[in-house]
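Q: Protein A?
A:
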Amino acid sequence: MVLLSLSPVLLWFLSGIVFFALELLLPGLIVFFFGIGAWCAALAVYLLPISLSTQLLVFLAASLLALLLLRSTVKKIFLGRTLEVDAMEHSLPEDATGEVIEDILPPAAGKVKFGGSFWQATSEEPVTKGTVVRIVEKKNLTVKVAPLKTNGEH
């Protein structure tokens, strides 16, 4: 067989590449650290003439150590952090208005048509269907509204 004639250094190195490729297919960022362990074993075999059982021990120890020490850091780098940036939240005009399409009866939410979409809406006071409201705040997929006061109201 061709695999048996390859050097242990090359076998461990290629095993590491296989583990890295498998990480692309499997979720969880665990298999990646077996790739690091395989490369550590390849380096150990390259530097020292060690037995197969010692190679396996180096592989397991390096994999577990890398997993325990580096997983959170590597996860942040490769998977990224969730950054909630909402363009509408930052560009909410002061005079934004909407129309209530489902009664808002606090503490229960209702629905408002605003900006061409339908939004969950909350209010500090009851607001009936058909009322034009001012959008006070937008948080995630919910808007906080207040009834639009006309000039004669206080």
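Q: Protein B?
A:
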Amino acid sequence: MVAGFAARGWARFPTDPALARWAEAALPAARRALAEATEALRCGGTWDVGLEALPNDAEGAVAGVPLAGAAIDAVETLAGRLQLHRAQLSTVHPGYPRPWVEEGEAAFRYRLLRDAAHVDGLLPVGSERRRMIREPHAWILGLPLTRTAPGASPPVVWEGSHHIMSRAFSEALAGHPLSRWAEVDVTEAYHAARREVFAVCDRVVLHAEPGEAVLIHRLALHGISPWTEAAEAPPEGRIIAYFRPELPGGIADWLTV
């Protein structure tokens, strides 16, 4: 595994020829998928979530080009070879983020000032949108498809935050039977852990180019940075394909760091 990943909760992989070939093949497919999307862009027309949008196969291949390289070898050391879902195509455009009708003032302020920092897999449940662990991912792998300036809303991660989150969720679930963990409200524990992370962990910007990769620990607090005014990107925007396969061992394994 990449040196330091377990401690930091993130890793960046340099340009890999095999991954560069995959990104080159994936970009035209991504353009077509995004052009055919029917869901309106979020954040005032500046963000396309692109869930399950890339037409890759269960091995990650696109248009016959395999998903391969050092980053792929590395993630397989974490949880073995996992069947992959269709990748998310997170696409950001200049001006991100802007206010929009689906997001209140406090949520927009959090997006603007705190990068909408979150832990994947915690879903808002019910009318009060209480956080519960419903999608225990194995890891988060980001593969850039477009070449952009560093200020074009790269992902960010709080270094070491996965340790704080693991402790907070473990304490919140203590005393509940394992079979009921997905029903436990972890909202307050999550919010308290986020505050601790902001106070003690360094925010790291993970800008990368096609052929490179960024790996984020499943428990790490991460988000999307605002687009800086002078940042340049191609017309289709900043596109990153994300793989987040679910962990076969469920929440119990998800809690480990």
